[in-house]
Design goal:
The chain is mostly beta strands. Helix content is about 10%, strand content about 40%. The protein has helices at about 1-20, 50-55, 300, and strands at about 45, 55-60, 60-65, 70-75, 85, 90-95, 105, 110-115, 125, 130-135, 145, 150-155, 160-165, 180-185, 195-200, 210-220, 230-235, 240-245, 250, 255-265, 265-270, 275-280, 280-285, 295. The strands form 5 sheets. Strands 1, 2, 19, 20, 21 and 24 form a 6-stranded antiparallel sheet that branches. The protein has a 6-stranded antiparallel β-barrel with strand order 4-13-16-15-14-17. The chain has a 4-stranded antiparallel sheet with strand order 3-18-23-22, with no helix packed on it.
């Protein structure tokens, strides 16, 4: 009999404990990004002050002609016909230097003066063989030089060669001469430069097992400098109208990816289905409509933001 009473007391006590635990949520803070502990908040409303503090920035989703591309690491190089090594015609000593590294020179302009080693010989002016910028100086005043010694280098970079380095992947078979390319870099920001595939290696390098693709790229403002590291995006399909958003607007992992869409002070979290990558943009198959404002800066912090409390009506009791 005593054992039966004890068992009843234990069962009742366990039930009361579960009931108390279930209703204890009113005094327990919920985790950021959850609603009632059961799911992710779909929309958060922020004040103008909070929006400014988060530094929120948005970009419109757009439909534009896009082509699937292959991204490879690239190195900026001078075109061989637009780069020159300056040498002396005779042995001598550097007596004058007229130009500094980084300065622009015209074809025929004097770069430096050499005093030949033969007694009584007149000083010899060394001209620039091309119009461009002095990229390297290899001598100093008083230095003895020989005809085979490189004195300076001059390069012209309104057009450059970007050498893309590819490894042994199926993407190599998709590259063809004449395909459009887009060059991007963290140093260029959101800007990009356009060009075309000019030529390709005929074989893999035996040592590094790499394959080089060379693209001719227009560079009118000299934003691309020789030896700069860039990303070379090679278009491998015909452009078609595609809806895209910036890659930096996308959060999450391959299991669930999402963006925040702004409508006034409301920020809606939307799950998205993604397609191909186009440089700094990504195709959106589902989840976003054209011309919607997607958050590109401050979107990570929005995951943990809480909506502003609605103002209470002072006239209501």
């Amino acid at each position: 009999m005593k054992k039966t009473i004890a068992a009843v007391i234990l069962i009742v006590g366990f039930g009361l404990f579960n009931q108390a635990f279930a209703h204890g949520g009113e005094d327990h803070a919920e985790a950021p990004g959850t609603e009632g502990g059961s799911g992710v908040v779909s929309t958060v409303t922020l004040s103008e002050t909070a929006i400014n503090n988060l530094g929120i920035q948005t970009v419109k989703s757009v439909i534009a002609p896009r082509a699937a591309s292959v991204d490879v690491s690239g190195i900026v190089e001078f075109l061989p016909e637009r780069q020159a090594i300056v040498t002396s015609r005779a042995a001598g000593r550097v007596s004058e230097i007229h130009i500094k590294v980084g300065e622009m020179v015209k074809k025929g302009q004097s770069l430096l003066t050499i005093q030949p080693i033969f007694v009584g010989s007149s000083p010899v002016s060394i001209p620039s063989p091309i119009t461009g910028y002095v990229t390297k100086q290899s001598v100093v005043l008083g230095q003895s030089v020989t005809p085979e010694a490189a004195l300076m280098e001059v390069g012209e970079s309104s057009e450059v060669l970007v050498r893309g380095v590819m490894y042994e992947t199926p993407d190599v078979t998709k590259i063809q001469v004449g395909q459009n390319v887009r060059v991007t870099s963290s140093l260029l920001g959101s800007d990009s430069l356009l060009g075309k595939v000019q030529r390709m290696d005929g074989a893999y390098d035996r040592g590094s097992r790499t394959f080089n693709v060379y693209a001719l790229v227009s560079n009118p403002d000299r934003k691309l400098l020789a030896n700069m590291q860039v990303v070379l995006s090679i278009e491998i399909t015909t452009p078609a109208d595609i809806l895209t958003v910036p890659v930096k607007a996308i959060l999450g992992d391959s299991g669930e990816q999402f963006v925040f869409v702004r409508n006034g002070n409301d920020f809606e979290r939307r799950s998205v289905k993604l397609g191909a990558k186009f440089g700094n943009d990504r195709e959106v198959l589902e989840g976003v409509f054209p011309d919607e404002e997607v958050v590109t800066v401050g979107n990570y912090q929005l995951q943990f933001a809480k909506s502003v409390e609605p103002k209470k009506d002072a006239h209501k009791e």
